[in-house]
Specification:
Layout lengths: L1 H28 L27 E6 L3 H8 L2 E6 L1 H5 L5 E3 L6 E5 L10 H15 L1 E7 L6 E7 L2 E8 L3 E5 L4 H5 L11 H7 L1 H18 L8 H6 L2 E5 L5
Antiparallel strand pairs: 1-4, 1-5, 2-9, 3-4, 3-9, 5-6, 6-7, 7-8
Length: about 240
């Protein structure tokens, strides 16, 4: 009996040692996958452009003269103003320094199509008569309202505005709209049907407004911060409501 117990003990010890050796060998031969880095990748010039939020509504005017835009808008009480202060929403109108041949204008004084389409229409006609090509972009992720308008020399060549229903549909769809697969509903589309059946299309439109702006002119949130910091813009009050 003692001999049998010793034999069983020897077998158990041998099996245990074999298992330990096998585990050690496998652990040495196993190469763990690299742990993903939590650090952001090295920045490139384009990635230096996303340091501040994008306004909900803005104009893009094809011009290299900040003063010409100021004169066309008949700005009251003009004063120097930084981008950051303007984006804080403290100014009625902010005219940014020219970037790549475009002047951006933002602030609560920019007409909103969801408030008054007729006022926005008159505004775009008048400003484009003075300055040439003028574009308007607006979007709200909360309300899902969105709009894009392009006027040139006193004529609206393309406009689409949505605020629970189609408010403005003018001119043929541009190549950029087609490439981005933007959905533009007709005036006759029932609002209730669109809201419940095409909510995804409406939401997609909202997210793609900045992409369309980048195609037509500029996306404010993609402007190089160094250009923004280089010189201030001009802030003031609109001369009147259109």
């Amino acid at each position: 009996m003692p001999v049998l117990l010793l034999l069983l003990l020897s077998v158990a010890v041998s099996v245990g040692i074999s298992i330990i050796v096998l585990v050690v060998r496998r652990s040495r031969g196993h190469i763990s996958p690299p742990t993903p880095s939590l650090d952001p990748p090295a920045s490139c010039p384009l990635e230096r452009t996303c340091l501040f939020h994008r306004p909900g509504c803005w104009l893009a005017i094809k011009s290299r003269s900040l003063r010409a835009v100021q004169s066309a808008l008949d700005l009251h009480n003009p004063k120097p103003c930084s981008w950051m202060r303007a984006l804080a929403g403290e100014e009625k109108l902010f005219i940014a320094p020219p970037v790549k041949g475009w002047v951006l204008v933002m602030g609560s004084g920019v007409p909103d199509t969801s408030d008054d389409v007729d006022s926005c229409f008159r505004f775009m006609l008048e400003v484009s008569r003075k300055l040439g090509q003028v574009q308007l972009f607006s979007y709200s992720r909360v309300l899902q309202h969105h709009a894009w308008v392009r006027a040139d020399r006193g004529k609206v060549v393309r406009a689409y505005a949505w605020a629970g229903r189609t408010l403005w549909q003018q001119g043929p769809r541009t190549v950029a709209e087609k490439d981005l697969d933007l959905k533009c509903f007709d005036y006759t589309d029932p609002a209730e049907g669109v809201l419940f059946e095409c909510l995804e299309a409406v939401s997609t439109n909202v997210e793609k407004v900045p992409l369309l702006a980048a195609r037509w002119s500029l996306d404010p949130a993609r402007i190089d911060e160094r250009l923004i910091e280089a010189s201030p813009g001009i802030a003031g009050e609109p001369s009147r409501r259109y």
